[in-house]
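Page 37, top half.
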Amino acid sequence: MGSTLIDFKIAQHIAARLELIKDHLEGDVDHLAEEMLTGQFQTVKHSFPYPIVEEFTLDVKGLAGSHTFPEAGITNSRMVIERATLKDIFDHQLNEIFGLIDGRLLNLEARSPHEQVSYVILSGGLGSSLYLYDEIKRRYEMNFGFQSNNTASIRIMRVLEP
């Protein structure tokens, strides 16, 4: 669970689209998809959800020249990826994380109803994500989607660097 799984899921998405044009590519589709995740994609991922743009593009590795393949969402050898696709992948990870945190907090509430949780500390690559921080803060500090007697004064903290 985390940033690596986001890379894995987006690589699957890219590979599926590259599969549509594999006869025009120089190299293995899965390997090319992973190569596309270096550089610009990492910048997009680390800054998500900002800037708010509806799509971003990645250079298609293994595609010489300037080619357009509408069926694969490629224009001038650049794959267009919609923000909604990345958001869906982030949200899937968030839901997994929510499930784990919810389970721990509900277990604590059942076993020790008077104990208070002071902090949740987000660490690791995904732990530095502003999107993750904002959504977890919203859920647990502001009580949108989760409430527990043990979290009345909970604070969310995150690492600043991935």
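Page 37, bottom half:
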Amino acid sequence: MRKRISVLGAVATLMLGMTLFIAPSIGHAGTITSIDVTASDGTHFLGCVGPFGTCGPRQIWSFAIPIVLPVNGTLVLAQNQRQQAGALGYDFDPSDHGAGPVTIVINGLPTILSDSTVLNFHGADVQNQANEAHLYTVLGTIPNPPDPFLVEVGYADSLHENACVNGAGPDASHLCFPNATFPFDNVGTGGATVFIGHGAGDPGVGFTAGHCVFATSTCWDSGVIRITELPKAVPEPSTLFLLGAGLMVLGSYARKFLKRNS
């Protein structure tokens, strides 16, 4: 009986080694159902599955269905999903709502990320000239099972008159927007797996467009949130290879040993 158990153990070890040797890597996808961005004065900027008003009166992003991101896929959230010209188009401007940190909660998870410089322009409610454009800044990760989310914030500003991040307009280098290599263009379609946002027109408060055209609704004055689905940490392929090969050798040696002593 003891010999039979030993043989079964050797066979199991050999099979486990072969499984690790040939098993393919498994990818995951991340699902986003809600986001709550809260300014320091308590104003909420909400997004969720359902028509506008589903998750509150300040719902500015509406998801027809839960957003599913592949590994390394991105969701970018900005202003004016409804594509309205005029003042209502600038609906994601946390710098108008207090000088304290802006917090972000995704899927209602207990991890809360906080930003005190980008989304609220250091707590300053800017006037017509100052430009709030800011490149993407990493806030941190949210451990959303099965894979974590990386959360970055930036600011798109082609509305204000002063120079953008690098002193040029969006047509030259896109640096009125969060990232020169990420084509956050005037129609809001570039680069992301899912992009929710749209340019706007004249805000109706005495602005003279700095780097955009009111008539064609190409103006941005918007916080920007980029959420990236990160791959789950898994063993290196070389590690799995060595482990599998080692178990196969061990199993083969055990079988020979048992045969020799049977």
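Margin note: The chain has two domains: 2-26+243-260, 29-229.
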